[in-house]
């Protein structure tokens, strides 16, 4: 079967979905032969939808995100996105020799924004992530949470309709992570972006998403989905969030037991 990675052309009419994953599988070569990491995954992300990908470590969540980002190609199947996605990693990946503002400007430059417009746009994005006045700050002057805010602003600078996030808050302390949950929810609601967010934290998945998609242990398959009908704003300690988290955790544990992983 031919492998295709298709995207809407810039300036073309928006697609009916922000991302469409159709019967995607991915194998990697190993000492014992090809290892199947993802198996026959189909998943749509609607425009403006916030979807979390949840699963045990090693189930292929990050691999799937990399395929959607275009950093790798599926072995079989098709991935279509509405324009080029923006990707935010667990590590901020900021250039330490540039200021916060210049890190954002670099993304604007690569996008073709005129030089005389970049600083103003970078400052607007810093304001959006509530880092007003941080344009001249170096990376070493920023806290972990502030660095992730700059990384978010840099991702937003790509002016993509789809934001891909690979466990961006996993390394942060609980309080900072909770604050950034609030900020991400606010930015998502203000911008109308579509978000595909990878996590192994069940409560984080329920706290943020409109829909939670659980991948089985390797090879990763879509095991189950939940629609999260809990009004925003949410907190991880809210009773409805906790109740749904318990339900999802039990299914996740069953998947792990079924595949003999611990």
Tell me the layout of helices and strands.
Layout: E1 3-7, E2 19-30, E3 33-45, E4 50-54, H1 61-69, E5 76-81, E6 86-88, H2 100-111, H3 115-128, H4 144-156, E7 162-166, H5 174-191, E8 194-199, H6 202-208, E9 211-215, E10 222-227, H7 239-258
Parallel strand pairs: 1-5, 4-8, 4-9, 6-7, 7-8
Antiparallel strand pairs: 2-3, 2-5, 9-10
Give the fraction of residues assigned to helices.
25-40%
**Poorly predicted ranges (pLDDT <50, ≥5 residues)?**
1-6, 8-12
Number of helices: 7
Describe the strand arrangement of the main beta sheet, using strand numbers.
6-7-8-4-9-10
The fraction of residues assigned to DSSP E strands is: 25-35%
Largest sheet: 6 strands, mixed
**Termini Cα gap:** 34 Å
**C-alpha Rg, in Å?**
19 Å
The dominant shape is globular
User: What class would the helix/strand composition place it in?
Assistant: alpha/beta
What's the helix-strand series? EEEEHEEHHHEHEHEEH
Task: Round the mean pLDDT to the nearest integer and report it.
Answer: 89
What's the total count of β strands?
10
Pfam families: ABC_tran
GO molecular function, one term: ATP hydrolysis activity
Keywords: ATP-binding, Nucleotide-binding, Transport
Protein name: ABC transporter ATP-binding protein
């Amino acid at each position: 079967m031919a492998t295709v990675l298709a995207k809407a052309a810039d300036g073309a009419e928006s697609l009916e979905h922000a991302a469409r994953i159709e019967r995607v599988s991915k194998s990697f070569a190993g000492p014992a032969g090809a290892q199947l990491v993802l198996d026959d995954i189909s998943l749509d992300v609607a425009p403006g939808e916030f979807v979390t990908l949840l699963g045990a470590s090693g189930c292929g969540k990050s691999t799937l995100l990399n395929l959607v980002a275009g950093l790798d190609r599926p072995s079989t199947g098709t991935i279509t996105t509405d324009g080029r996605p923006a990707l935010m990693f667990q590590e901020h990946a900021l250039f330490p020799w540039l200021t916060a503002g210049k890190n954002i400007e670099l993304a604007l430059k690569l996008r073709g924004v005129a030089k005389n417009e970049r600083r103003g746009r970078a400052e607007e994005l810093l304001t959006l992530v509530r880092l007003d006045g941080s344009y001249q700050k170096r990376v070493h002057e920023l806290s972990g949470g502030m660095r992730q805010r700059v990384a978010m602003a840099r991702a937003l600078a790509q002016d993509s309709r789809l934001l891909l996030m690979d466990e961006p808050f996993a390394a942060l302390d609980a309080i900072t992570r909770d604050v950034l949950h609030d900020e991400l929810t606010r930015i998502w609601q203000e911008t109308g972006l579509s978000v595909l967010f990878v996590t192994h934290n069940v409560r984080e998945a329920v706290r943020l998403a409109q829909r939670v998609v659980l991948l089985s242990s390797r090879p990763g398959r879509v095991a189950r989905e939940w629609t999260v009908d809990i009004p925003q704003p949410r907190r991880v300690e809210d009773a409805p969030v906790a109740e749904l988290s318990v339900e999802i955790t039990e299914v996740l544990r069953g998947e792990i037991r079924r595949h003999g992983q611990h």
